[in-house]
Amino acid sequence: MSARVIRDGDAWGADRPSPLALPLLILLALISAGLVVYAAGNWALGAGFAAAVLAGAALLSWYRKLHPQEMAVGEAVPDWTVARAAADASNMAIAVTDRAGRLVCASDLFGEWFPGFPAPPHVTGDAALSDSLGNAARAAWRDGEARVEGIVQGALRLDAFVCRTGRSEDYLLWRFSPVRQPSALDDVHRLLTGEAGRQLGEAGIMAVMIGGEGRIRAANGAFLLRAAGRIDANITGRDFAAHMRVDDKARLFLAREESGGIPLRLLQVPLKRAAQPVGAQSGAQDGPMLLLLIDEPAGNAGGTSALSYIETLLSLLPFGLAMADRDGRVLFLNKAFSRAAGLKEGDKPSYPGDLVVREDQAAVADAVRRFAVGPQMSGDVAVRMREQPDEPIALSLAGVRGLGEAAVLLSLKDNSEESKLKRQVAQATKMQAIGQLAGGVAHDFNNILTAIIGHCDLMLMRHTPGDSDYDDIQQIKSNSNRAAGLTRQLLAFSRQQTLRPQILQLPDIVADVSNLLKRLLGESVKLEVTHGRNLGAVRADPGQLEQVIVNLAVNARDAMPDGGTLNIQTYAVPAAKVREMRTDIMPPADYTAVRVSDTGLGIPPDILSKIFEPFFTTKELGKGTGLGLSTVYGIVKQSGGFIFAESELGRGASFVIYLPVYQGADADQAAQPKAPVRRTETWGTGTVLLVEDEDMVRAVAERALTRQGYKVLTANDGEQGLEVLAGDEKIDLLISDVVMPNMDGPAMVARARASHPDLPVLFMSGYAEEQLRKSIDIANVAFLPKPFSVSQLAEAARDALATRPAPE
Predict the structure, then answer these.
(1) What would the mean pLDDT of 685-698 be, rounded to a whole number?
(2) How does DSSP assign 617-643, residue by residue?
(3) Do the domains spanning 80-178 and 687-803 agree at the CATH topology level?
(4) Integer Cα distance of 411 and 398 in angstroms
(5) Using one digit for the tens of pLDDT, what is the confidence trace for 55-84?
(6) Considering the entire predicted model, what is its pTM?
(7) How far apart are CA 256 and CA 233, in angstroms?
(8) Residue 99: which pLDDT band, with cuts at 50, 70 and 90?
(9) What is the DSSP track for 264-324?
(10) CATH number given to 428-492
């Protein structure tokens, strides 16, 4: 490139004498002579000075002609050779203008881009562009520099930079530089490291850009995850070939996946820069390149046949499996998966997220995408199914490769039975806790009722029918007995009531209660009774079993307001059948079952889990205590059995009771009821030691026994009882509460028997005898449940004294 220098239309350096130089010189000599004459007053001196000036100018002109180069050294002329060298080394069009706007210097590239070497700002015929450049020139003269961007000149897009320069800053330097166009390499780099690269990864495409030397310049997350194990791994500058391997069949694999990897298909896209050297070939093999890697699809007939075979195999498996593609669409699911997901026959969801609640759909979709594009791995996601939103289950996912479109394998366990067992265990645990609470409340309440009933009995002894207070006292006692009935129901629910078990057959109990049921059910409800064969005997309290059947029948009647059918069925359940039920609640054994079912309205699912809770009722206020089914539950559990409720809305409800078959030696011998001992005399003699920690119970029991003729000594707990027993007074009968602070009744009796082995003992408690059997397992003791009346206490004391050995 050469530089062209212009001044007054000619090349710089071809100077010629100006025609005005001689007249100016003569005028200068005359002025000088006039000044000398004026100053010295001598015309001769002035003329001589003028002649000397003219002679000096003539000599200087003659010397300049003889030595032009030496004279040019001292002149302040710009050295344009330096500007020429700078212009040759740049890729810019350069021009220099003076204050008059004339072009004094320009590079050849300026002439190529702007033919004819026009002086800026008039480089083009565009008036708007010329105005912009003119404004830039004025700004540069004023501020020192200015800039104009986006100048369009043919196919060029230029930026102009103008600055004030020169020793006296009397020139403007114009630089026109091309705007740098982004290259394909820049575009690809942004694509791989940005949102587009992430979306490529989600589609299962691994993308890598390598240089001509084979080193990695950029890669998307899918390649980083599978090739390096981390999506944030830094592998820039590493050899691409080091991350790949080729097997003996010339198939390409990722080196990190080793033998478990999947063959990859490699697509190469050559890249070229925006500006290439002259003669460079577009897309040269040694230049930068974009590589796209995808899993080798099973697109041939054999692959399709293999996939069909796999789907057939999966459909036969007993556990739920489904396959989804990289986009999360469900490709296949077997019947077990549909059943576990609660789908109807023939239904197929479009996406796995359609199976779960709305809050879990995003998590499922994200997990499917993650397992589809990453390395082969598996994991679980806790989700809530749309059909069962209250019970989170585990959805297992595994990334698969080589199955065509299938990229994720989903597994869902049919946990309906497991969920049912969990509900049963949770229900049993809750009922046990409620039972303990109910038993404790009933025990404390029984102490209060014992005092109320006892005082009523003592008051009635002083009044006769017809007295003004007799009816009031009788009413108080009647209400107290009703309250005692409620506590018995609570104790029955909490499995703490006193039972009198016998060996019996369930059909006999149903037959005994059938006549009563017909009257309770009314004419609109039909009673059907069926009995199975080979029923085993059970050991239970017949009276309590009758109460169970009556309570269930009454609830069934209330569920059929428009009439219906009540069916009572008894049947045998062998141990093999129990094993088939696969329940952890009932141990495998032989049972005799009774099913009470109706054709009523049914029980809603949200209520079914609460029906056995005490005081829970769906009846109107004042029409139910909520203790009927809770009493049934407690009696069955206390008898060693199990009860389950089944119901569908609009299809009635069924209650199934399983009682274990009695395996004792006397199983074939029904217990004969003992003839009651008819004793009406309750008066007695002797000394009774009464040990009771409740003051109100101790007071009423002391008065009741004293009225019956006994001498009564009292104590507050077991320690005081032992002190009284160790005294000089001979004790004929020990009456004690079971549960007391400091020392309870059984511990006191155990120590008392050491010194009084034949001492009769009568225990009394608000808890059931069966509940206390382990603690009161002492020979020759009787039991009186609370609440009791005065007469019941007198009869229990009389019977306990009757067991005393006769004196020798």
Answers:
(1) 88
(2) --SPTTS--S-HHHHHHHHHHHTT-EE
(3) no
(4) 9
(5) 666 666 655 555 554 444 444 455 666 666
(6) 0.39
(7) 14
(8) confident
(9) EEEEEEE---SS--TTPPTT-TTS-EEEEEEE----SHHHHHHHHHHHHHHHHSSSEEEEE
(10) 1.10.287.130
* Residue whose pair of structure tokens reads 């000096």 in the numeric block: 56
The sign of the dihedral angle between the CA atoms of 144, 147, 148, 153 is: positive
Instruction: Count CB neighbours of 152 within 10 A.
Output: 11
Instruction: Report DSSP letters for 447-473, one per residue.
Output: HHHHHHHHHHHHHHTT--TTSTTHHHH
The residue with tokens 């912009």 is 132
**Residue linked to tokens 């009744």:** 745
Q: Is the pLDDT of residue 790 over 50?
A: yes
To 10 degrees, what angle do helices 506-521 and 542-558 make?
A: 40
Dump the DSSP string for 743-803: S-HHHHHHHHHHH-TT--EEEEESS-TTTTTTTT--SSEEEEESS--HHHHHHHHHHHHHT
Report how far residue 229's alpha carbon sits from residue 252's, in angstroms, rounded to the nearest whole number: 18
Query: Is residue 393 over pLDDT 90?
Result: no
Which residues neighbour 71 within 8 Å (Cβ) at sequence distance 6 or greater? Answer: 63, 64
Question: What value, to the nearest 5°, has the Cα angle with vertex 717 and ends 711 and 718?
Answer: 90
**Contact between 188 and 210 (Cβ < 8 Å):** no
Asked if residue 241 lies in contact with residue 214, where contact means CB atoms within 8 angstroms, the answer is yes
Give Cβ neighbours of residue 274 (< 8 Å, ≥ 6 apart).
180, 181, 182, 183, 184
Q: What is the largest CA-CA distance in the chain?
A: 193
Average pLDDT over residues 667-677: 49
SS (H, E, C) 648-700: CCCCCEEEEEEEECCCCCCCCCCCCCCCCCCCCCCCCCCEEEEECCCHHHHHH
Q: What CATH superfamily classification does 308-413 receive?
A: PAS domain (3.30.450.20)
CATH architecture of 498-660: 2-Layer Sandwich (3.30)
Reading the block at residue 289, the tokens are: 């390149």
In the chain, what are the domain boundaries?
80-178, 184-271+288-294, 308-413, 428-492, 498-660, 687-803
Question: Looking at domain 687-803, what is its CATH homologous superfamily?
Answer: Response regulator (3.40.50.2300)
Average pLDDT over residues 615-619: 61
Pick among 3.40.50.150, 1.10.10.10, 3.30.450.20, 3.20.20.370: CATH of 80-178? 3.30.450.20
- Nearest CA to 507 out of 533, 543, 525, 539 is that of 533
Rounded Cα distance between 477 and 792, Å, is 14
First to last CA, the chain: 150
Domain 184-271+288-294: give its CATH code: 3.30.450
Q: Per DSSP, what are the bridge partners of residue 642? A: 658
CB-CB contact of 760 with 780 (8 Å): yes
Which range, 5-14, 117-126, 424-433, 480-489, is most confident?
A: 117-126
Q: Three-state DSSP class for 39? A: helix
